[in-house]
C-alpha cells in the first residue's frame, strides 16, 4: 500500500491510466469499471492502479469521513462475482489534513482480459472505455504476444 508521501504526490498529479479520483461514495458501477480497467493494465505498466474515493478531480480532498460501510462496499467488489477473474486488490483508509481518502490499490491481472459484467474495460489516459469484442480480442492478443514468450518473428525464425 502507498505511504502518505506517495499518496500526496499522486493526489497532486494529474489523473492518468493508473489514477482515478472520485467524490462519490455510492457509484459502484464507476468503481467496478475503474478496478476492471486497472486489472487489465492495457498500457502494460506492470504497476498497480489506484482508485481514490473522497478526492476531487483537481486532487483536493472532499472532506469525506470514510466509514466501515464504504470500506466493506469497496472490498466486496473483489468477490461479488461481477468482476472476473477476481482482481488482486487491497482497500485502506488514509486520514489526511482536510479529510479521509479510501484508497483501492489494484494490481495488473496475470489473466487478462478482466471483465465487469461480461464487458472489458480499459483506460486510455484518464478516460475509461468499454471495448467491443472484435477490438478487445485484438488488443489483448497483441498484449499477450508482447508479455509472454517470443514474438511472431522469433517463432518464424525458429
Overview of the structural elements:
It is a single chain. This protein has 158 residues and is an alpha+beta fold. It has one domain (4-131): Schlafen, AAA domain (Methyltransferase, Cobalt-precorrin-4 Transmethylase, Domain 2, 2-Layer Sandwich). Helix content is 33%, strand content 25%. The protein has helices spanning 4-12, 28-40, 68-76, 133-147, 152-157, and strands at 19-22, 49-53, 83-84, 89-96, 99-106, 115-116, 119-124, 127-131. Strand 7 and strand 8 (127-131) form a beta hairpin. The chain is globular and about 40 Å long. The protein starts with a helix and ends with a helix. The model is unreliable at 145-152 (pLDDT under 50).
Instruction: Specify the structural class.
Output: alpha+beta
Fraction of residues in H or I helices: 25-40%
- Provide a count of the helices: 5
- Global mean pLDDT: 87
Cα separation of the termini: 43 Å
CATH architecture: 2-Layer Sandwich
Radius of gyration, in angstroms, nearest whole number: 17 Å
One letter per element, helices H and strands E, the order comes to: HEHEHEEEEEEHH
Summarize this entry quickly.
The chain has 5 helices and 8 strands, in the order αβαβαββββββαα. It is of the alpha+beta class and 158 residues long.
For this entry, give a set of tags:
5 helices, alpha+beta, Methyltransferase, Cobalt-precorrin-4 Transmethylase, Domain 2, 25% strand, four-stranded mixed sheet, 158 residues, four-stranded antiparallel sheet
Amino acid at each position: 500500500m502507498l505511504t502518505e508521501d506517495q499518496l500526496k504526490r499522486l493526489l497532486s498529479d494529474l489523473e492518468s491510466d493508473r489514477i482515478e479520483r472520485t467524490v462519490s461514495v455510492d457509484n459502484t458501477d464507476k468503481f467496478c469499471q475503474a478496478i476492471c480497467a486497472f486489472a487489465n493494465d492495457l498500457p502494460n505498466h506492470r504497476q498497480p492502479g489506484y482508485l481514490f474515493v473522497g478526492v476531487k478531480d483537481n486532487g483536493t480532498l472532499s472532506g469525506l469521513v470514510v466509514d466501515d460501510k464504504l470500506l466493506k462496499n469497496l472490498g466486496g467488489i473483489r468477490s461479488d462475482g461481477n468482476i472476473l477473474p477476481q482482481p488482486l486488490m487491497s482497500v485502506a483508509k488514509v486520514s489526511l489534513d482536510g479529510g479521509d481518502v479510501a484508497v483501492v490499490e489494484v494490481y495488473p491481472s496475470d489473466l487478462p482480459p478482466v471483465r465487469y459484467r461480461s464487458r472489458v474495460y480499459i483506460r486510455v489516459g484518464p478516460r475509461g472505455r468499454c471495448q467491443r469484442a472484435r477490438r478487445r480480442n485484438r488488443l489483448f492478443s497483441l498484449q499477450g504476444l508482447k508479455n509472454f514468450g517470443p514474438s511472431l518473428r522469433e517463432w518464424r525464425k525458429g
